[in-house]
Amino acid sequence: MSAIASKPAGGAEMPVMGAAIAVVLLLAVLGIGFGLTIAGIFPMAAFYSLIGIIIGGMLVTFSVHLVPVGGAPAAMGQAPGIATGVTMLAAGAGLAGLFKGAWAAQFSYPVALGTGAIGGALLMAITCMLVNVTYVFAMGIPAASGKVNKDPLTGDTQPEYKSQGTEGHGLPFISYVGGVLGGLIGGFGGTLIYLSLYDAYLTGIPALMGTDVESVMPLIVSIAGIFAIGMFLVNAVLTAYNITGTIEGPHDPKFKRFPRAIVASAVASALSGLLALLIIVPVPF
Questions:
Q1: b/e 17-47 (16+ beta carbons within 10 angstroms → b)
Q2: Confidence class for position 12, pLDDT limits 50, 70, 90
Q3: What are phi and psi of 7, to 5 degrees?
Q4: Which of 83, 153, 211, 265 has CB 3.0 to 4.6 Å from 74, enough for a Cys bridge?
C-alpha cells in the first residue's frame, strides 16, 4: 500500500510493529556503543554520555508536547497558543536553557542543570505573558480554550469567552502553566545533552589531539554546543511531526501522543549521540 493510500495513524495509539523496530534499533545502537567501550575504543565516560544524551533527548521531546503552539491560526486570533511553529518555539525555549546551562557548567553539573531549566522556563513565562498582553490589550480578545469547557487548574469556564467560528484564542491558564513546564523540562533536557557531550569531549578531544585540556577548551565547548543544538532540533522536528499542527498544552487530546514520540526520540537521540561521540575515536592512517 502506498503512503498516500494508507490510513494515517491518528490519536495516541502506539503502532506495535513500529515500537518493536524502534526498540531493536535502540538496543542495536546501545550495543554498538557498549561494544566500542569494551573494545577500549570508547572510554566508559563516553558510554555514560550516550545514556545521558538519550535521556536528554527524551525529556526534550516530552517538553515540546507541553508547549502551547498556535501557528498561523493563533496569529489571526482563531486558535489558542503562541503564533509560531512547534519547532521554532521549542528550539527557542530549549536553546535559552541550553545556553544558560552551558554558561553555568563551570560551577557544577547540578547548578548547570538547574540554571538551564530555569532559563528555558523563564523564556517561556515571558513569551506566554506577552502573548496574552498582546491578545487582551491590542486585539481585545480574552483567553479561551477550545479543547475543554473548564480550565483544569482554575475551573474557569471557557465557552462563553470563545468567539464563534474559532477554536479559542489567547493562552488560558493551563496553557500558560504547560508552556512554563515545557520550557523547564526542555531546558533541563537540552542542558543534559550538552553536559553529556562536554564530559566525553573533555577527555576525548585532548587525547585525540595530543594536547592539554586548556589548549582545546574553546574547541570542546564549541563542538559540544553545536552537537547539542543539532540534537535539540532533531527532537523538536520529530515532535512537530507527531503533533501535526497546533496544540494547546497538557489538556489537549494531542498531548496523549507523547509516548510514541518518546520512543522515536530515544532512537534518534541514540543514533545522533553515537555519531557525535565517534569524532573522538582516533582514525588510523
A1: eeeeebeebbeebbebbeebbeeeebbeebb
A2: low
A3: -80, 125
A4: 83
DSSP annotation string for 21-68: HHHHHHHHHHHHHHHHHHTTSS-HHHHHHHHHHHHHHHHHHHHHTTS-
In whole angstroms, what is the distance from residue 163 CA to residue 178 CA?
Answer: 23
Mean pLDDT of the chain: 84
- H-helix segments, the chain: 16-38, 44-64, 71-75, 86-104, 109-133, 173-209, 213-243, 258-277
Please state, as a whole number, how many other Cβ atoms lie within 10 Å of the Cβ of residue 106: 9
What is the b/e burial string over 137-159, where b = at least 16 CB atoms within 10 angstroms of the residue's CB? eeeebbbbbbbbeebeeeeeebe
Enter the DSSP assignment of 256. Answer: G
Q: What percent of the chain has pLDDT over 90?
A: 17
pLDDT score at 141: 85
The residue with greater pLDDT, 260 or 2, is 260
Is the Cα dihedral 59, 186, 238, 249 positive or negative?
positive
What does the angle CA 153 – CA 114 – CA 125 come to, to the nearest 5 degrees? 40
Collapsing DSSP to helix, strand or coil, 77 comes out as coil
Q: Which of 56, 48, 33 is nearest to 281 (CA)?
A: 33
Segments making up each domain of the chain, as ranges: 61-277
pTM summary value: 0.87
